[in-house]
Amino acid sequence: MITPTEELAAFLRTRRERLDPGGSGVPVRRQARRTPGLRREEVAELAGVSVDYVVRLEQGRGLRPSADVVEALSRALRLTAAERAYLFDLTRQRPRAATEPATTAVPSLARLVADLAPLPAMLMNHRYDILAWNGEMAALLLDFGTLPPSRRNAMWLCLLHPEIRERYVDRARVLRDGVAHLRAAWAAHPDDPALLRLITECTTRDEEFARLWAERDVKATGRGSKVLRHPAAGVLAVDFEVLLPLQDTDQRVMIGRPADDASRSALAGLKPLRSCEGSPG
After folding, report:
1. Does the pTM exceed 0.70?
2. Looking at the structure, do residues 48 and 159 belong to the same domain, yes or no?
3. Number of C-alpha atoms within 13 angstroms, CB side, residue 142?
4. Shared-domain flag, residues 18 and 141
5. Which residue spans traverse the membrane (predicted)?
6. Residue 25: inside a domain, yes or no?
7. What's the CATH number where 210 sits?
8. Residues 189, 101: contact at Cβ < 8 Å?
């Protein structure tokens, strides 16, 4: 598995190479460019650091930039909000939670998930292990209680479960978003062995995942939509929101809502399955 230092080097290179020199505020030179994007000299000038410093960062030579330098590089590379947060995580400049990653549901949050019925809802940790779910979410996706605890993971199900992976109508977009979310989770928790095992398995078993992982896209959004091809209800569209409790920041509640009247009727026609608190093991 690549180390955070190696990832920092690769991430900086890929972000630099994707930039359009004409739109980055650097003088346009007449000589032909041998590589795409900005030159290291141009990034150094925009960030207010030396060229040698940028070279050593991109070579993974063990530097740990200060928060001010990370901010300057973020501006120079025109990073998105998610990419900026990712860079802060890679350089260990963002404060980290002192608690261990959650592996069981907080009881009050598990009760909340149950009480959200008839809306489908589930509780996950940072690596998308499913810690609790209500009967409506089980009816929409899968009876998670039938799975081994180690397979109750939303990313693994989307990528590798033979039934669930074919349920998404726009699977290419769902997969791209999922990989980008997982990369953000890895940067925030680079020493989590279970998360590393998940990424390694997905990279090894799914060529598309491996290709997208190498692109180093980062995303951390709390809402979106998915169109599902349900075996009983047909095609239905679900909007979702992800809520992070202030006190238990490693757990997150995902709530689904029908996106239109037809989807509302389809969801209402599904018989709820058993709800449960589970542990990913």
Report:
1. yes
2. no
3. 20
4. no
5. none
6. yes
7. 3.30.450.180
8. yes
H helix intervals, the chain: 4-17, 40-47, 51-58, 67-76, 81-90, 107-115, 135-140, 154-160, 171-188, 193-205, 207-215, 261-268
Q: Which domain holds residue 208?
A: 107-277
Please report where in the chains the tokens 């025109």 appear, as a residue: 78
C-alpha span between 185 and 49 (Å, rounded) = 29
Task: Look at the chain and report how many structural domains it folds into.
Answer: 2
Does any domain span residue 96?
no
Q: Is the dihedral of CA 209, 37, 187, 55 positive or negative?
A: positive
Residue 96, both tokens: 């980290």
Quote the tokens at residue 77: 């590379």
Edge-to-edge order in the sheet of strand 251-258: 223-230, 234-243, 251-258, 121-125, 130-133, 276-277
pLDDT tens digits for range 158-207 = 888 988 988 999 989 988 998 999 999 898 888 899 999 999 999 999 89
User: CA-to-CA distance for 81 and 184, rounded, in angstroms?
Assistant: 11
The pLDDT score that the predictor gives to residue 22 is: 72
Q: Measure the CA–CA gap between 124 and 31, rounded to whole angstroms.
A: 52
Residue 240 region by backbone torsions, left for phi larger than 0, else alpha for psi between -120 and 50, else beta: beta
30 and 86 fall within a common domain: yes
